[in-house]
Amino acid sequence: MTLRALLLVATALFSIGIYGLLTRRQAVALLLSIEVMANAANLVFVAFARFGGAPGQPLVLFALAITVAEVAVGLALVLLLYRRHGDTLLELASEAKG
Amino acid sequence: MSAELGFGLLAFVLVGLPAIRVVTCRDLVRGVLWLAVTLLGTAVLYALLRAPFLAGVQVLTYVGGVVTLMVFGVMVTRKHEASTVPVDGTNKVRGALAALGFFGVVAWAIFRTDLSSLLPVETPSTQDLALSLLDPYLLAFEVASVLLLAAIVSAVVLARRRDPVPGTAESVQRSAIQEGSAP
């Protein structure tokens, strides 16, 4: 298990997240893709903590807290979208368009 | 080289395949469950990287908390039994191109960078982690707790149904309905 292989795995995960972010139309599915991307970033933090001794592990704990907060607020917004339009397709959330 | 190939295969089975299922699944509930598999696979990678505490936290908060929350979110906002959404073709091609382009650029940068000076070192123990949270990162720790509080309050405020303001037409109507239905 080398650092290069780990970085490539994390990059692949992040790319999969980008693909999901660009192709899905449902708000919850977008949240799932963001989770995958955040996970890839955390993997890089832990990899650099193991190789080279960067202080990555405390950073992962903070990143976890931020992700949990983001999911809570994101799901509340999805719930609002559903109540207003009866569905969670993202193109329905266009009230703020100029 | 064969060890690296083996690790690549392991990583593909642990996180790659489930992550691909997350972004391609038509059924959202299955997508959430595949996300749980991805996160568990990442926890395994953390354990392999000598970060046992983070592996435990990952399982507890992500798989236990976030995935449960997501399942609730999907179930509450589901329109029909099988909520599938069509994806149009050009969108898919564009997404794949963007993802592959990003992967190509970053992989190129990784292969060009000299990583040989970064050798495996002793990772901090759980005790070291706790001490570092409460000493050098104390401010960030407190800010994170305030952020979590703000997120909880905002989630409740956003998701709550509006109480009717007393005296408006809606509240009068509502109380009339309630009185009418009372025996």
CATH architecture tag of the largest domain in chain B: Up-down Bundle
Q: Compute the number of structural domains of chain A.
A: 1
DSSP helix fraction of chain B = over 70%
Q: In CATH terms, what is the architecture of chain A?
A: Orthogonal Bundle
**What is the number of beta strands of chain A?**
0
**Rg over C-alpha atoms of chain A, rounded to the nearest angstrom:** 17 Å
How would you characterize the overall build of this protein?
The complex is a heterodimer of chains A (98) and B (183). Chain A has 98 residues and is mostly helical. Chain A has a single domain (3-87), classed as Helix Hairpins (Orthogonal Bundle), CATH 1.10.287. Chain A is 77% helix and 0% strand. Chain A contains three helices and no strands. Chain A has helices at residues 3-23, 27-50, 56-85. The longest helix of chain A has 30 residues, at 56-85. Chain A starts with a helix and ends in a 13-residue tail after the last helix. The mean pLDDT of chain A is 87. By secondary structure, chain B is an all-alpha fold. Chain B folds into two domains: 1-84, NADH-ubiquinone/plastoquinone oxidoreductase chain 6, subunit NuoJ (Four Helix Bundle (Hemerythrin (Met), subunit A)); 124-183, no CATH class. Chain B contains seven helices and no strands. In chain B, helix 2 (28-48) runs antiparallel to helix 3 (52-76). Chain B is extended, with a radius of gyration of 24 Å. The mean pLDDT of chain B is 82. The interface between A and B is large, with 71 and 84 residues.
Please outline the helices and strands.
The complex is a heterodimer of chains A (98) and B (183).
Chain A: H1 3-23, H2 27-50, H3 56-85
Helix pairs in contact in A: 1-2, 2-3
Chain B: H1 2-24, H2 28-48, H3 52-76, H4 89-112, H5 126-134, H6 138-159, H7 169-181
